[in-house]
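Field: sequence (string)
Field: structure_tokens (string)

Example rows 1 and 2, in order.
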Amino acid sequence: MTMSTGQQPIRSGAGPVRPLGVLGGWVIGLVAATVVVQFISDFIDWAHYADFERRWDNPQSGSMPDWQSDLWAGVIAMVLLLGSGIVVIAWLWRARRNAEALCAAPHRLPVGWVIGGWFCPVVNFWFPHMLMTDVVRTSDPRTPADAEDLARFRGVPAPALVTAWWMLFVMSWLLDFVSLRLSTPELRSKTTGEYYVTAYSPSGGGSLVAVELIGTGLLAGAAICLGLLVIRVRQYQVARAGRPIAPAAAAPVTDAVPVTAVAPAAAPAPMPADDSPRHKHADTAVIVADSLPIAESGDIERSFGRVRDSWHAPEILDLDADRLRARIAVILAAHAAEGYTEVSVKTSTDNKPTLVHLDSFHPTRPDGWRPVRIANRGNGRFALYGHSSIYQVSEIPPDNADLVAELVTIGTTRGYLKPYEPGAGSIIDGRTKEIGRQLHSRGGIDMMRSVHAAVAERVRHHPGLARELEHAWDGIGSWQR
């Protein structure tokens, strides 16, 4: 009954996310078994009551066996219901912890209510619904990971399914109390031509069986809704930990972004050296960031604080336009070297401050999301923070950032040495050699070594590429590695 293909912890931009597959399978399996056994118990009660009424209509003596509800199936159903409750609470606890790691938005209730909310009188009529609703919303990839308030994302679908589950469950639960009242033994008596007959029967008569069947039917509906929620939350959390869906509220970069009136500053010029997609993304991110409203330092700090722990981000970087563009270029180059080749640039105005959302995606890895956030500080300065990986790339001079990015692209797409050809051997890639000469003319062997180290860091997941680059530059100046 499990729904998991593997139980290794998923690592997202928000840290480790424990798998829900096995627990979800137990929830679905035990709840389904509870419903089936409860139906069996109800039908046995129905058969017992029908047999009792037949004997009551045609008594064979002055006394007859009392009506008794089914025992063995009822006991099994109660044991299964207890087991189901335990695994549902365990599943909800893990789903809540995962959701907290995946989305910074605060939940309405402390995590302790995941257990207490089911047992505390009065509030247990709505607290579990609130808990499940918040888990679904924060798990949904359409809710931004750095959302400040879940109330802004109440339009995200799925809470309707939560409401259906909870209403069906509560109605079934209330009918259990009605069944208990209707099953109270009541002494019946009548006089026939030969006998004075007495026996105990349920006070509710046939209504008891009808209420039991309706209650179990409602429980079955709640079980179906819960199963769908279990599957949906797991899918949401895997998607959010891997490749989140773009938030519905996020505006594409082509949309107009309101600009706060400030003293005009020189617009950042596009990076000229390369026409590659990552340089275009870097240009786009800087230009859009420059058009954003000026962000207050306090708002930037609060936005950063919501994701600091989950993204393992040590600090906010303060950069000018040129350094920001260069930094983004090498970040995207490093991400691309690890297979994060899909890039999205959007703006979001749902929280303060307005930010540029620059996200890199890996098409297959479960940890396939690398978020970067950019805010406009004004006067040509920008705040940059995001996934821990963006702090692991060393900053290099802006003049060389484009060359580093280009070398990473060459190495990861076609290699620095062309494939071996009979009679010709391995031929050095012409552009790789040209970049080496350009670096040597700019700063000699030291600059070549600096760029080589930056490239080696970004292609470290591709064994042999750094060594291949060393051979490609042999013979340039005094280069000899």
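Row 2 begins here:
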Amino acid sequence: EADTPFIKVATIRIPAQKFDFPERHRLDEGIAFSPWHTLPEHEPVGGLNLARKKIYLETAKFRHTHIEQRLREPQPYSAVLDDPQ
């Protein structure tokens, strides 16, 4: 810091948000996440991870059947790009 001293340029304040309401709980219960929702080069590899992938899928199906909600998964990263691969 002797050569380039710290200079405060801004303060960001993020107010607390309320997340405890029924619509949010329904959204939370209806989403399934998996390590495979990523770029292809970041996907888990190997035999053990192939088993994990199947377990993630079956667990999500069971959970969504149990709570009687449609299984919704986040879109793959390429689906949000302007020019999907």
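free_text_note (row 2): Residues 22-76 form one domain.
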